[in-house]
C-alpha cells in the first residue's frame, strides 16, 4: 500500500515501510519517560535513609513498562537501514551478528521467564507488579530480536551477491 503525496514531478509515494519507520520514532519519548521514572526513583532512594519503599518499586515497574514499550516500538524500524556504523559492522560480520542475536535472545527470553516466574510465585503485589513490568520489557526485547534477525539477513557480507566492477558491458 502506498499513498501519493504532492503533485506533478515532486510527487512522493509513502509506503508502509515509511509509516512504520515514522511510528518507530515514538520510542524516544517513551524512553525519556522511562528515564524520568528511573531518575525519580533514584532521587527517592538517595533522599531516604532506609531501604527503598513501595513507591520506588512502583517507579521501577514504570521504568520497565515504558522501556519495554519504547524498545518494542523500535522494532518497527526498517530493517534495511541501520542507525550507525557500529551497528553496520556488527550485522555485516557473521560471527558478531550471531553473538549479538544470542545476547538479545538471552535478554528477551530471560526477562520474560523471570517475569512469568516472578508473577506466579510472588507473594506481594509489589513484586507482582515488577514481574509484569519485566515481562513487558522482555516482550519489547522480543520485537527487537525479530528486527535484529532481519537486519542481520539484510546486511551480512557473506550472503551478499558479488558486485562487479564492470559497468555491465561484455567484451
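^ C-alpha cells above, recovered residues below v
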Amino acid at each position: 500500500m502506498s499513498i501519493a503525496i504532492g503533485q506533478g514531478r515532486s510527487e512522493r509515494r509513502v509506503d508502509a515501510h515509511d509509516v512504520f519507520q515514522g511510528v518507530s520514532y515514538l520510542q524516544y519519548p517513551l524512553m525519556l519517560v522511562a528515564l524520568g521514572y528511573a531518575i525519580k526513583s533514584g532521587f527517592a532512594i538517595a533522599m531516604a535513609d532506609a531501604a527503598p519503599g513501595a513507591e520506588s518499586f512502583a517507579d521501577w515497574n514504570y521504568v520497565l513498562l515504558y522501556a519495554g514499550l519504547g524498545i518494542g516500538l523500535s522494532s518497527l524500524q526498517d530493517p534495511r537501514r541501520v542507525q550507525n556504523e557500529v551497528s553496520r559492522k556488527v550485522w555485516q560480520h557473521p560471527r558478531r551478528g550471531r553473538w549479538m542475536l544470542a545476547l538479545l535472545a538471552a535478554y528477551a527470553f530471560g526477562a520474560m521467564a523471570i517475569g512469568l516466574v516472578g508473577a506466579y510465585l510472588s507473594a506481594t503485589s509489589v513484586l507482582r507488579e515488577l514481574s509484569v513490568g519485566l515481562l513487558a520489557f522482555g516482550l519489547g526485547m522480543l520485537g527487537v530480536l525479530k528486527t535484529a534477525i532481519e537486519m542481520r539477513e539484510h546486511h551480512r557480507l557473506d550472503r551478499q551477491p558479488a558486485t562487479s566492477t564492470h559497468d555491465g558491458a561484455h567484451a
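The chain has a mean pLDDT of 82.
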